[in-house]
Design brief:
By secondary structure, this protein is α+β, with helices and mostly antiparallel strands. It contains 3 helices and 5 strands. The longest helix has 30 residues.
């Protein structure tokens, strides 16, 4: 079993030691033959920044494969979805139990989420060193 997640893409730009790759993220049904007639199919273009030691071997427009380990994907999922869900639910239940006010509980839960995402933004460089992609 391969422990890597791969996406093919096209190099959009190169700046400093960072190669920006445009990937097309598709849902499972986007490749279906009747996807054009169905509202369930989705596809989005994403820009992925890849730190590279030798960016001079790449050029814009070149097709590449961007690779991330499953551990990186798991870490990103936990930071982006699991922890915020726990914060939302925990703050909601704690404030509701303490005050009995649904309004304050909802505001506290949203405030907790806002604080979490501000912390993620503040530590984005440190997180970026642990959650990173490579070009294969």
């Amino acid at each position: 079993m391969d422990d890597k997640i791969k996406h093919s893409g096209v190099i959009d730009s190169i700046s400093g030691g960072i190669v920006t790759v445009r990937i097309l993220q598709e849902s499972a049904c986007a490749a279906c033959k009747v996807a054009g007639y169905c509202n369930a199919s989705e596809s989005k273009q994403k820009l992925v920044e890849v730190r590279c030691d030798t960016p001079d071997v790449y050029c814009p427009g070149q097709e590449v494969v961007v690779v991330a380990s499953r551990g990186v994907a798991l870490r990103a999922t936990v930071l982006g979805f699991v922890v915020p869900l726990l914060i939302l639910f925990g703050a909601l239940m704690a404030v509701l139990a303490l005050t009995g006010s649904e309004g304050w509980a909802a505001l506290s839960a949203l405030g907790g989420l806002a604080l979490w995402y501000v912390l993620l933004w503040l530590f984005r460089r440190r997180i970026g060193r642990k959650v990173s992609f490579q070009i294969e």
